[in-house]
Amino acid sequence: MSWLWMLLAVILVVFDLPNSKSSSFTADLFENWSKQYGKTYPSRQEKQFRLSVFEDNYDYVTKLNSLANSTYTLSLNAFADLTHHEFKARYLGGFSASANNLITLNGGSSSVGASCSVGKIDIPSSLDWRKKGAVTNVKDQGSCGACWAFSATGAIEGINEIVTGSLVSLSEQELIDCDRSYNNGCGGGLMDYVYEFVQKNGGIDTEQDYPFKAGEGNCNSNKLKRRIVTIDGYKDVPANNEQELLQAVVKQPVSVGVCGSERAFQLYSGGIFTGPCSTSLDHAVLIVGYDSKNGVDYWIVKNSWGRSWGINGYIYMVRNTGNSAGVCGINKMASYPTKSSPNPPPAPPPGPAKCDLFSSCSGGETCCCSWQLLGLCLTWKCCELESAVCCKDRLHCCPRDYPICDTNRNLCFKRMGNSTLVKQLHNGGLSGKFGDWSSLLANWNF
Ligand SMILES: *[C@@H]1O[C@H](CO)[C@@H](O)[C@H](O)[C@H]1NC(C)=O
Ligand SMILES: *[C@@H]1O[C@H](CO)[C@@H](O)[C@H](O)[C@H]1NC(C)=O
Ligand SMILES: *[C@@H]1O[C@H](CO)[C@@H](O)[C@H](O)[C@H]1NC(C)=O
Description:
Elements: H1 2-15, H2 24-36, H3 44-65, E1 72-74, H4 84-91, H5 99-106, E2 111-112, E3 127-128, H6 147-164, H7 172-178, H8 191-201, H9 221-224, E4 233-236, H10 242-251, E5 254-258, H11 263-266, E6 268-273, E7 283-293, E8 296-302, E9 314-318, E10 335-338, E11 353-354, E12 360-361, E13 366-373, E14 376-383, E15 389-390, E16 397-398, E17 404-406, E18 411-415, E19 422-424, H12 436-443
Parallel strand pairs: 2-4, 6-9
Antiparallel strand pairs: 1-6, 3-7, 4-10, 5-7, 7-8, 8-9, 11-12, 13-14, 15-16, 17-18, 18-19
Helix pairs in contact: 1-3, 6-8
This protein binds 2-acetamido-2-deoxy-beta-D-glucopyranose (3 copies).
One 2-acetamido-2-deoxy-beta-D-glucopyranose is lined by residues 67, 69, 274.
């Protein structure tokens, strides 16, 4: 529906109807917008504040969209109730391209700059890896600053499809939880560290098996061992070399850092983004192709802010600007994983879990002791969850992620932060396993 607002916005500008200062129009618009994006606010005051932020964004969007020479448009998207300051705090800064990081990085095992093929490869006039099936659906990082993980999985998904012919969505959560040597979960990271980590670990698990939780958790060591997709190394595109960046994109989707903290980036909705934009990198995205329109060349860039941002989650960013860093610094820090080896064969289903000499549970289950005497377990039961936590009542078990049993209320909890705050299992996005509680009881043969 954003086109409708755009239309309304244009009509407003053209006919100079009352703007947000006479707020019944924007209040009405805000109501519709809240409905569309499912926004509710805990208090009247908060709602009032959000309305005022929305009105401010409305003014900004209307003003920019009325510029005759602008090549891009803005809209009141899902971020339209956030101040620019809030937006930056919540969605940016996940890309830590500091000098320190770079020093460590160049000490890594990458071969920097592949230049033997310069000028040798054919450069088509346009290219879209999405049309070749090498790009997964746009993901949503939520307010976890792990753009680096999304950019890196996107690049690995791409090269994996190009080499093996199968498109597999890969796990950012594994990177957030387990790749902790240099990267810092929702606090930021770099794609090259991911490539080093995945290479060293011997592969990475799928999105489906280790899904994104929009927060940090403990590394699941079983899933860490599920090495579904491998890479053989990575390469850095020489900084500020747009020609080499283009050659890299011709071969595969490429990870890049950009400055994503311009206000116009927050509310971008379409067209070719030309800035103005700083070149200090604070966000990571993925170039998945390039094209030109009316003589303006642009990159096709996949973001990780969900499908409601930009063009179904994508942004077109101008290229060949003559500025060596590129728009928003996009030429400054590009890299991509390399792959020539096939992926490992699928692992056999987990073998039976042995409880003691005489009893075992099937693979993917956990042994829980149901009758203990003098410290010895005499009877075992099987919990149908893998690596589960056995509850003290000896009747129930909880999934590993939600390890606190509340057997009176039939719930499993998890601690959040440093307080006594607890989270209820069925709000935790546990992918259907909560339904197991009752079946669990039945399976325990009592
Ligand atoms: C809000 O939605 C209603 C119902 O769809 C519509 O009639 C009204 O014009 C909308 N208001 C604005 C300001 O877009
Ligand atoms: C568009 O016009 C505005 C105001 O006339 C000017 O400040 C701005 O630099 C122009 N932008 C471009 C990309 O030409
Ligand atoms: C931890 O607890 C202290 C004291 O209650 C509180 O001030 C602080 O905000 C808490 N930090 C987090 C991350 O929850």
